[in-house]
Write a structure and sequence with these properties.
Length: 284
């Protein structure tokens, strides 16, 4: 019965979580295609949607086929040609991998949180690409960075509660690494036509040099994200019903004592005793 709601919810999660953040910005030159020919949108969008869908369904053998059908169906419904096999295969592979990692996080959602770190880090820095001269760019990027971290920490504790709080430190570190990966990939994408050695050196330098400005600029927002995740997890745990009591090992046994045959006299009626024998009347 749980699949009657989890599968439709997974379809919605794949659509919203995978593409809502990039749908409007990703539309190229007035086209109405839902899936534009953008490799970053296909990979990260399909991957994030697959993770959320797999987390809701919770079974690999069901989540992976469902997200593949959803991805192929939306590809066809939006009028995109199936002749673009490279883009279609990219979307299907990213979606299947996301569904796999999301279903693995059904028991411990820490796996799903690690899988979502890269798409969230990629989304958090997207305003910086178009709003370079905007006055409130620091506040916008910082709010997105902090909100993304709070969301990851909340997802990590989704299944096991505070028992997963030990994963917050490595998850935060991996979140920072994802920002460095995004910066390195962005530099590689912009370095078309250059020698591979020069591109590799520049991307490596960009990877290691991105940690210091990120921590210097956005560490207050990351602290706010951690402080925000604590009440979020607390409210979720309080909203859950109490855990059922442990099973009684003696529930299938009756309370009647079992007596051996030599103790059956206990249940017999004891005759009334007298202190003195009854006086017998003399015979007349």
């Amino acid at each position: 019965m749980r699949y009657l709601w989890s599968i439709p919810a997974a379809v919605v999660a794949w659509f919203v979580g995978g593409f809502s953040a990039t749908y409007l910005k990703g539309l190229p030159e007035g086209t109405t295609y839902f899936v534009p020919p953008r490799i970053d949108l296909l990979v990260l969008g399909g991957f994030a949607g697959g993770v959320l869908a797999g987390l809701l369904i919770g079974r690999i053998r069901i989540a992976v086929p469902v997200v593949l059908v959803v991805a192929a169906g939306l590809w066809w419904a939006t009028g995109t040609s199936f002749g673009e096999l490279k883009l279609l295969i990219t979307l299907l592979v990213a979606t299947a991998l996301g569904g796999f990692f999301g279903a693995l996080g059904a028991r411990s959602s820490v796996v799903a949180a690690f899988a979502l770190a890269l798409p969230i880090a990629w989304t958090a820095m997207r305003p910086a690409e178009q709003l370079g001269d905007w006055r409130w760019l620091w506040q916008l990027n910082g709010a997105l960075v902090g909100a993304g971290l709070a969301l990851l920490l909340y997802i990590a504790c989704w299944k096991r509660g505070w028992r997963s709080v030990g994963a917050w430190i490595p998850l935060t570190g991996f979140y920072l690494v994802c920002f460095a990966l995004v910066e390195a990939v962005r530099l590689v994408a912009a370095s078309t036509g250059k020698p591979m050695d020069a591109v590799g050196n520049e991307s490596t330098d960009a990877f290691f040099q991105s940690f210091e400005p990120l921590l210097r600029e956005y560490w207050p927002w990351m602290v706010v994200g951690v402080l925000l995740a604590i009440p979020m997890v607390t409210l979720k745990l309080r909203a859950l019903p109490p855990a059922p009591p442990p099973p009684d090992p003696y529930a299938d046994r009756s309370n009647d004592a079992v007596l051996s045959e030599d103790l059956d006299w206990i249940d017999q009626v004891e005759p009334r005793r007298r202190l003195l024998p009854k006086r017998q009347q003399p015979a007349s």
